[in-house]
């Protein structure tokens, strides 16, 4: 893990120029994955997927396909609020997910971690640093996961991303559907998000772009 990232959560990439990172959390279901993958392939955009170990166990083929093209990170084993757990249980959550992701996809998620619910403390950041991870947060949450039952629409998802667009922005989306209304707003909005950001001159990068010596 690069020492310059120690002790912090990265909520915006320390890069210059009009570059943004599209990131997707995968923990509940995979209903939006086919659409998301098709859009990313068609538009030639790279993304980062944070997988829970439970998601990988439930959707092994899907997880392998995601890891085969894009960057995968660690989102714990079962998506608990880590601030409520002992250090030993936090470590087990991270290590179990890591082992599951590696065994199923063949990819090592180390260096890329996202706290469930964004819940963290300085102590927890240091703990995951010690496990060879940099925690990545987000600049903007699309809120697509709230679904239409939560008052969101495809248009609100697009609007939130465009309003927060800035060099180095990290966009948080989800691959699953809302459990109440079955909507996949993030997947539905993705083509428009990419097109509108490109119209503004933005390019898309994976999170590993910032690990290079000259990001």
**How many strand segments?**
8
**Which strand-content bin applies to the residues?**
5-15%
Low-confidence stretches: none
User: Which value, in Å, is the CA radius of gyration?
Assistant: 16 Å
The helix/strand class is alpha/beta
Order of helices and strands: EHEHHEHEHEEHEHE
Q: In terms of quaternary structure, what is this? A: single chain
The profile of the biggest β sheet is: 6 strands, parallel
Number of helices: 7
Helix coverage percent: 25-40%
| Euclidean distance between termini CA atoms | 15 Å
Average pLDDT reading = 96
The 3D shape can be described as: globular
Layout of helices and strands:
Layout: E1 19-26, H1 33-43, E2 48-51, H2 53-58, H3 60-69, E3 71-74, H4 87-105, E4 111-113, H5 122-130, E5 133-135, E6 140-141, H6 154-164, E7 170-174, H7 185-199, E8 203-204
Parallel strand pairs: 1-2, 1-7, 1-8, 2-3, 4-5, 6-7
How would you describe this structure to a colleague?
By secondary structure, this protein is α/β, with parallel strands linked by helices. The chain has helices spanning 33-43, 53-58, 60-69, 87-105, 122-130, 154-164, 185-199, and strands at 19-26, 48-51, 71-74, 111-113, 133-135, 140-141, 170-174, 203-204. The strands form two sheets. Strands 1, 2, 3, 6, 7 and 8 form a six-stranded parallel β-sheet that branches. β6 (140-141), α6 (154-164) and β7 (170-174) form a beta-alpha-beta unit. The relative contact order is 0.24.
Question: Would you kindly provide a brief summary of this structure?
Answer:
It is built from seven helices and eight strands, in the order βαβααβαβαββαβαβ. It is α/β, with parallel strands linked by helices and 215 residues long. The longest helix has 19 residues, at 87-105.
